[in-house]
């Protein structure tokens, strides 16, 4: 086995990763949550989508500037290490390997299974759903571990497929809504009177989850051809396209069904909207594309998940470095890192089920693992942006000061918004987070002590 990954991905794959990872399950069921949070006020909901999009684009732009300077193994870990130091980079990598990647990946496996169950009429919380979720999780692991090139092609294909229902609803739904007056009615009717500030705050939390995941595209930095040019292009172009598609889709929904119906639609809300516009058969067919969309997101998340421990092992840090930094000569994949990544996904899938889908197994420590990792990932961006302002003196005022400051403000906003939405559950999550990071510190200290002994 070797320790080096080949450069095999082009600009198209990188853009597909940015769009494909972000666009997936979130936009389909978070649209309903945004409507509920704003009391059915479509204009306020659009403002929430714009705020969330601006925060995403500003952070992506700032990282894109750093991408023109640094090119190593795992994007955000590289940036953390270059900006602050090897120790901070290690802790960011450890967090992403043990918490961030596997929590989001496991939840996406369940979401993909949930929409499959909705299509076939199965229970979304029963054994059928969890069985399908496990199969999807293993399938995503297999395609990424055995054939990374095929996984990249699957990412491009599913990105194109997943845009079909979004663009169809954006265009056809808007045309239908304007012709029958539904769009105008929904824009001029507020279902419930809610506090504007509180409603907007909660709605932005929902968009934060729908927008989350673009940073995972940086995990293939070292495998991307001409990464210093192509990664910034992918981050900026991809995130802007995502915001535009989300807003147009949101407007399209307003032409499909009334705000009251959409708010009460539950997990079948998106399916109901598609069936209203495209008939029962056409709506079900397009809903199949929604499931493929979720699977594409799962594939992209798993791609990042399989490289979790590899990204810190190649830096000479973390547990069993010689084991986790090995790359298979045939598949050119960090096989050992992939296996442990799948194990973490399985553990977090079990936790998600026990904490959110049945009578709580964990009491106080039950929290939503689909959103709360965002609290820490945005917090971890802030020191990177601060050090960028301090160190990158050759950059222009716009790149060195304006955009990083805007990004910092966005990160702080997201942290406050997440705490506002989840309240006491944030405390439970932060305790688990602290325990995981302490375990990571034990491995870091062992490496440090070992280095001193060698010296």
UniProtKB/TrEMBL annotation:
<feature type="transmembrane region" description="Helical">
    <location>
        <begin position="277"/>
        <end position="298"/>
    </location>
</feature>
<feature type="transmembrane region" description="Helical">
    <location>
        <begin position="9"/>
        <end position="29"/>
    </location>
</feature>
<feature type="transmembrane region" description="Helical">
    <location>
        <begin position="339"/>
        <end position="358"/>
    </location>
</feature>
<feature type="transmembrane region" description="Helical">
    <location>
        <begin position="234"/>
        <end position="257"/>
    </location>
</feature>
<feature type="transmembrane region" description="Helical">
    <location>
        <begin position="401"/>
        <end position="418"/>
    </location>
</feature>
<protein>
    <submittedName>
        <fullName>APC family permease</fullName>
    </submittedName>
</protein>
<keyword id="KW-1133">Transmembrane helix</keyword>
<feature type="transmembrane region" description="Helical">
    <location>
        <begin position="424"/>
        <end position="444"/>
    </location>
</feature>
<feature type="transmembrane region" description="Helical">
    <location>
        <begin position="130"/>
        <end position="151"/>
    </location>
</feature>
<feature type="transmembrane region" description="Helical">
    <location>
        <begin position="41"/>
        <end position="67"/>
    </location>
</feature>
<dbReference type="InterPro" id="IPR002293">
    <property type="entry name" value="AA/rel_permease1"/>
</dbReference>
<keyword id="KW-0812">Transmembrane</keyword>
<feature type="transmembrane region" description="Helical">
    <location>
        <begin position="163"/>
        <end position="180"/>
    </location>
</feature>
<dbReference type="Pfam" id="PF13520">
    <property type="entry name" value="AA_permease_2"/>
</dbReference>
<keyword id="KW-0472">Membrane</keyword>
<feature type="transmembrane region" description="Helical">
    <location>
        <begin position="88"/>
        <end position="110"/>
    </location>
</feature>
<dbReference type="InterPro" id="IPR050598">
    <property type="entry name" value="AminoAcid_Transporter"/>
</dbReference>
<feature type="transmembrane region" description="Helical">
    <location>
        <begin position="200"/>
        <end position="222"/>
    </location>
</feature>
<feature type="transmembrane region" description="Helical">
    <location>
        <begin position="370"/>
        <end position="389"/>
    </location>
</feature>
């Amino acid at each position: 086995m070797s320790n080096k990954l080949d450069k095999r991905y082009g600009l198209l794959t990188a853009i597909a990763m940015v769009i494909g990872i972000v666009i997936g399950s979130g936009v389909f069921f978070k649209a309903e949550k945004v409507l509920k949070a704003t009391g059915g006020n479509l204009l306020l909901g659009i403002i929430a989508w714009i705020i969330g999009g601006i925060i995403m684009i500003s952070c992506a732009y700032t990282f894109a500037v750093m991408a023109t300077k640094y090119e190593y193994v795992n994007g955000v870990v590289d940036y953390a290490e270059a900006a602050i130091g090897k120790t901070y980079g290690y802790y960011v990598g450890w967090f992403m390997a043990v918490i961030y990647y596997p929590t989001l990946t496991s939840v996406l496996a369940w979401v993909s299974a949930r929409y499959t169950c909705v299509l076939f009429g199965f229970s979304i919380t029963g054994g059928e759903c969890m069985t399908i979720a496990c199969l999807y999780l293993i399938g995503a692991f297999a395609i990424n571990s055995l054939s990374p090139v095929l996984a990249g092609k699957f990412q491009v294909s599913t990105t194109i497929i997943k845009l079909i229902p979004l663009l169809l609803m954006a265009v056809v739904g808007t045309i239908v809504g304007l012709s029958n007056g539904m769009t105008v009615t929904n824009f001029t009717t507020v279902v419930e009177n809610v506090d504007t500030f509180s409603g907007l705050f909660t709605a932005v939390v929902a968009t934060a989850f729908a927008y989350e995941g673009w940073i995972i595209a940086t995990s293939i930095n070292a495998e991307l051809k001409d990464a210093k040019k192509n990664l910034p292009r992918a981050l900026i172009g991809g995130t802007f396209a995502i915001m535009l598609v989300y807003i147009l889709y949101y407007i399209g929904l307003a032409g499909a069904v009334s705000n009251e119906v959409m708010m009460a639609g539950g997990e079948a809300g998106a399916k109901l909207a598609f069936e209203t516009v495209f008939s029962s058969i056409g709506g079900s067919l397009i809903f199949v594309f929604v499931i493929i969309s979720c699977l594409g997101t799962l594939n992209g998340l798993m791609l990042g998940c399989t490289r979790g421990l590899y990204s810190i092992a190649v830096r000479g840090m973390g547990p069993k470095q010689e084991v986790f930094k090995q790359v298979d000569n045939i598949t050119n994949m960090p096989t050992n890192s992939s296996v442990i990544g799948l194990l973490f996904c399985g553990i977090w899938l079990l936790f998600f089920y026990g904490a959110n889908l049945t009578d709580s197994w964990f009491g106080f420590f039950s929290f939503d693992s689909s959103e709360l990792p965002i609290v820490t990932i945005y917090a971890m961006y802030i020191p990177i942006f601060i050090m960028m302002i301090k160190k990158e003196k050759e950059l222009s005022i716009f790149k060195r000061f304006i955009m990083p400051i805007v990004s910092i403000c966005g990160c702080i906003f997201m942290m406050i918004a997440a705490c506002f939405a989840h309240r006491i559950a944030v405390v439970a999550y932060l305790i688990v987070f602290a325990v995981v990071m302490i375990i990571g510190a034990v491995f870091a200290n062992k490496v440090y002590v070992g280095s001193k002994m060698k010296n």
